[in-house]
Design brief:
Layout (H helix, E strand, L loop, with lengths): L2 H16 L4 E3 L3 H18 L13 H5 L10 H7 L7 E3 L13 H8 L4
Antiparallel strand pairs: 1-2
The structure holds iron/sulfur cluster.
The site of iron/sulfur cluster has 13 residues, from loops.
């Protein structure tokens, strides 16, 4: 399957997963297209559409948690930012994703008083 066709297929599949979680694809089409393209390449290389923004390690447990869409594993953190780490998905009410910022996990814990 070529890259464009696979991006389209991933969009279809991922939408079914993220919508019930309160997320949608970012309206920033350049970001969405770039992230999906990177995921297709990672999938071609590793067999799995890993996150394009979080590094793979030798730790299988870590790697499982960064298969897209990884929202269920990072729910509180991403809900706080109103987007996933890459910005591929945003909360459904977000119309201007350019206003959102990545907040490192440690900073999120500090701000909210949550425990890891
Ligand atoms: S941070 Fe976003 S793009 Fe990256 S794996 Fe998680 S849901 Fe997918």
């Amino acid at each position: 399957m070529d890259v464009e066709a696979r991006k389209k297929a991933l969009r279809f599949m991922f939408r079914q997963v993220v919508e019930p979680l309160g997320y949608k694809f970012t309206p920033d089409e350049d970001t969405a297209d770039f992230c999906l393209g990177q995921e297709v390449r990672l999938e071609q290389k590793h067999g799995v559409p890993y996150c394009p923004c979080q590094g793979l390690t030798k730790d299988h447990k870590h790697n499982i948690r960064i298969i897209c869409p990884c929202i269920p594993y990072h729910r509180e953190h991403f809900d706080y930012m109103k987007m996933c780490w890459c910005g591929l998905y945003v909360h459904k009410d977000v119309t201007d994703p350019g206003r959102l910022r990545q907040i490192p996990y440690e900073e999120f814990l500090k701000r909210t008083g949550r425990k890891p």
